[in-house]
Amino acid sequence: MFHHDPYATAGRDSRAGRRGSFVACMTAILRQMEDYHYAHLIKTFGKMRSDVVDFLMETFIMFKNLIGKNVYPFDWVIMNMMQNKVFLRAINQYADMLNKKFLDQTNFELQLWNNYFHLAVAFLTQESLQLENFSSAKRAKILNNVSEHLREHFSSAQTPDPNKEPKAELYGDMRRQIGFEIRDMWYNLGQHKIKFIPEMVGPILEMTLIPETELRKATIPIFFDMMQCEFHSTRSFQRFENEIITKLDHEVEGGRGDEQYKVLFDKILLEHCRKHKYLAKSGETFVKLVVRLMERLLDYRTIMHDENKENRMSCTVNVLNFYKEIEREEMYIRYLYKLCDLHKECDNYTEAAYTLLLHAKLLKWSEEACAAHLTQRDGYQAATQGQLKDQLYQEIIHYFDKGKMWEEAIALGKELAEQYENEMFDYEQLSELLRKQAQFYENIVKVIRPKPDYFAVGYYGQGFPTFIRNKVFIYRGKEYERREDFEARLLTQFPNAEKMKTTSPPGDDIKTSSGQCILELYNQYNQCAQQLSFYRVNEVQRFEYSRPVRKGEKNPDNEFANMWIERTIYVTAYKLPGILRWFEVKSVFMVEISPLENAIETMQLTNDKINNMVQQHLNDPNLPINPLSMLLNGIVDPAVMGGFANYEKAFFTEKYMHEHPEDHDKIEKLKDLIAWQINSISRERSIFILLGAFPT
After folding, report:
1. How many CB atoms lie within 10 A of CB 672?
2. Signal peptide: which range, if any (predicted)?
3. Is there a contact between 123 and 69 (Cβ–Cβ < 8 Å)?
4. Helices (H), 403-460
5. Residues 58, 60: Cα–Cα separation, whole Å
6. What's the pTM value of the predicted model, to 2 decimals?
7. For residue 669, with 0-12 CB atoms within 10 Å meaning exposed, 13-18 middle and 19 or more buried, which class applies?
8. φ/ψ (deg, to 5) at 434
9. From CA 522, how far away is CA 485, in angstroms rounded?
10. Residue 516 contacts residue 496 (beta carbons within 8 Å)
11. What are the start-end ranges of the H helices in 145-219?
């Protein structure tokens, strides 16, 4: 009978070929059936209700399996569409039986209805019905044509020739047809709806995400109905909310959802919630929360495969911060590890350590059992939270060591040592840990660590991605990274961006333009003693950018007299370094430093530098003397700007004191700083002259 087997001729498995022929036969039979045939089929079971249930169960499962296994090749468009049209009619017939025989309180069959909904959603979401994936010509053909010539082949139970041009017959978008049917079936459930919450949230979400506008408009209101049902039952819709957040993350990451869906979801559900007496406020809060999540997930998906790992990191942090905010610990940890992996790929070991530390902070030093979501990585073998925290701490300390953040490694090591000594009594682990700590202390004293520079970068214009658009960030530079290198790296990421030539913030014309403008400011820290220098360039959240501004007439004899400083203060959302090498600036304010205050600051910085360098030499006499000798000689015999003598000319005159009596205390402070510097230079220079370090 099955004389033609296209799968066998194509070298495919013979069983798959037989399945294709069987489905062709079944499709041909179902295609011949009228409404009364279906009714007669059910009557043949007599009064045995269980037989009808079993038949429908098996049929739903079989249809779902056939849909999922793609019996025919994807490019057999006509055959696939014909099968789907026949299956759709059969599914609708069986749905009618559900409404008539298994809906009332006495005869309701939960599992049967559940199987129906899963079958209907599987049918709607199958690949062969996603019209947007076809060419415009093929899509038009699918929407308007169906194969008339299949009848002659079905009559002989032969698989039709997929390449033969069919005759015309109306088709339509079957996704919309089955979607409207699912909607009606849901509303028919009445008091039984609560039995499907939250289990049906995922399938309904999957259906609403199909990119067909009318289908979305018709089915998104089901979510409000679910909220309403759960609220009437439990006075909240927490289970629904938890489920939709979890499923939405999975669906959007898998490629479903778009900006239009976000807008429709927001508009439709807000309209329904605001009309409800009890859900107006809580419902609106929920809708806004889900919309915020969608914005972050869509950004994340857009750049998920971007070569620019920094953009991927930014979006990952946006998502994990959102999950932290709404206390979704499982999803929060999931994105922490996505971020940690990105950092390891870029050798950002310090940032990887801080990322893992966020996971460790969720755990207790206890024998409390580890929940499944806490151990999302196969590498961790831990039965209790204490064991998992121990393993995480060891890994974090390892990353801090590789990132030369030994102070942080020591702090964690002390906490871990306390556990080994007083709780676990694991002296072998304790001894190994203490040896590591000893090495860390030695590294702090002896290893020279390059001091990172910090850069403020503003991204202005509508051409930038939403997560950085019209925002300012502080970046922590890489080891030995010069300003030119940082700038080149930045412009490589945005080759079409234009670097602004001014340091002033841009106006609305630039912010609303379609282009990309980058404003870059530079901040560099001075070298200082090893132990102190760590805290000068780490755990930093407040940054300053200063630029000189002249007020009044220029004094050619003394530039200090009217040299004001315009200082912009940037405060970041988090301390640097952290889980990123950059953080958004959350507040900006500007202060003006008067010429006298500027002089005091300059003298204080110079005195601190002298003191630090002298202390280094006292602690280690073998250090090279040249840097200190150059510093002292430069102060004694300044080649530029005239040294502190200009301060005396500008601020220590009777005229200045008479015009600025409010500056009396500041002038006295400046005098003290100058006096300290003179005494210090005289003392240190005398000592080093004896050592032959300075010319007499």
Report:
1. 12
2. none
3. no
4. 406-419, 427-446
5. 6
6. 0.81
7. middle
8. -65, -35
9. 13
10. yes
11. 150-155, 174-188, 201-208, 213-219
